[in-house]
Amino acid sequence: MASHAIVKIGGKPIPSEIFSQVLSIKVKDAPGRKSDTAELVLNDQDDQFAFPRRGESLEVTLWRDEVPGAVTFEGVIDNPRSRGSRGGGQDLIVPAKAADMRGGLKVRKEKHLDDATFEKAARAFAPDGFSIAIDGDLGQIRRDYWYLGRESYLHWAQRTADELGATFKVVGKTAVFVPMNAGKSASGKPLQIVKATRPGNIVNWDLGPDDGRHEYEEFDATYYDPADAKWKMQDGRVRVMGQGTASTSRFSAPDQETAQRFAEGLKRKRDREKGGGTLTIDGDPAAQAEALCEVSIRAGISGTYLIGNVEHQWTRGQGFLSQLELKRPGKGTGKDDRDPSGGGGVLDDAPAPSGAPS
Questions:
Q1: Domain shared by 16 and 122, yes or no
Q2: Are 26 and 51 in the same domain?
Q3: Residue 121: pLDDT above 90?
Q4: How far apart are CA 33 and CA 41, in angstroms?
Q5: Residue of 65, 93, 60, 62 lying closest to 78 (CA atoms)
Q6: What is the Cα–Cα distance from 303 to 292, expressed in whole angstroms?
Q7: Which residues sit opposite 247 in a β-bridge?
Q8: 3-state secondary structure (DSSP) of residue 155
Q9: How far apart are the C-alpha atoms of 61 and 58, rounded to whole Å?
Q10: Of the candidates 75, 97, 119, which is a domain's last residue?
Q11: Residues pairing with 184 in the sheet
């Protein structure tokens, strides 16, 4: 299974004659909140590499001959550093982010917009030089009042995305909003289903269909009703198996419609965190945050999961691997109809341990 990697720093590829000094490459794909990142580790024992400059471009491409497509990363170098010890060698660490935070994303501002759609507000509040990409009907959500209240665009965008049941992500100079759990990439395109099988492409796993945490039955949000001059509770009208308790948003909504979106957003976020674990497979470019992964290992575990974070790794010894954080088991995932006590199963015929009571 031949795997390959190309790395460009400042637009120039690392020459093949010194590429043997590349020890490892990592590319992390996040579903939202956090920017995609990359990290390059170079053997710098003889100072053969010029020290990278912060803000310089970094491009990475990873692929395998057996799988179509490639993992690509484009970003800017963040804070390069040297690492080593006496008698232990010397490495050059080159981290990078897909989002350039130097462009005003963290500058606090105060603005407002009356009777406008979300798309119009997102564009009006965005820093100069940034474009906006909003998928589906999100951009057409209308409110009487949008407020950027002495906060950065990053904070406002994430807060508003939570309210609308969406995920927010910065890709380069573009702010992207996509409906949560929609199975779409940051560009809004449908994602391929990743298949993980044993035997097959699975390297290792640690999975459970249910994390066992307390589950909420209701997802509520409060809002103020000016007609009745009192605070009210809006039920999200979405139920999950639980013990009859309610999860209520910590923040109050300005009206009933917004409260409804708050409540439904709480349910979507809880759905994402139920069960899952980690899975490592042979490198697969289709493995992206928000894609679905069909797992085939054993009864009680096999089924469909949502991919959260993805870390694509390339090392000289192991080649190209993809580590997936799996969440939100799908319907039917984890089904095993056998008696867990062993009745009617393979444990019936197993000999009793030596010294065990009969």
A1: no
A2: yes
A3: yes
A4: 25
A5: 93
A6: 10
A7: 219
A8: helix
A9: 10
A10: 97
A11: 190
Report pLDDT for 2: 85
Looking only at the bridges linking them, the beta strands covering 174-179 and 131-134 are: parallel
Range of the domain at 21: 3-97
| Tens-place pLDDT, residues 248-269 | 555 566 677 776 776 676 666 6
Three-class secondary structure of residue 308 per DSSP = strand
Quote the CA–CA distance of 107 and 156 in Å, as a whole number. Answer: 11
Give the closest residue to 230 by CA, choosing from 263, 252, 248: 252
> If you ran DSSP here, which 8-state letter would residue 190 be given?
B
Query: At 139, is the pLDDT very low, low, confident or very high (cuts 50, 70, 90)?
Result: very high
Residue 338 exposure: Cα atoms within 13 Å on the Cβ side:
14
Q: Are 257 and 187 in contact (CB under 8 A)?
A: no
Spatial separation of the C-alpha atoms in residues 299 and 277, rounded to whole Å: 16
* Residue among 77, 174, 80 at smallest CA distance from 122: 174
> Residues with Cβ < 8 Å from 236, sequence gap 6 or more?
218, 219, 220, 221, 260, 262, 263, 264, 266, 267
Is the preceding peptide bond at 329 cis, omega within 30 degrees of 0? no
Which amino acid would we find at residue 54?
R
Please tell me the distance from the alpha carbon of residue 247 to that of residue 262, in angstroms, as a whole number: 11
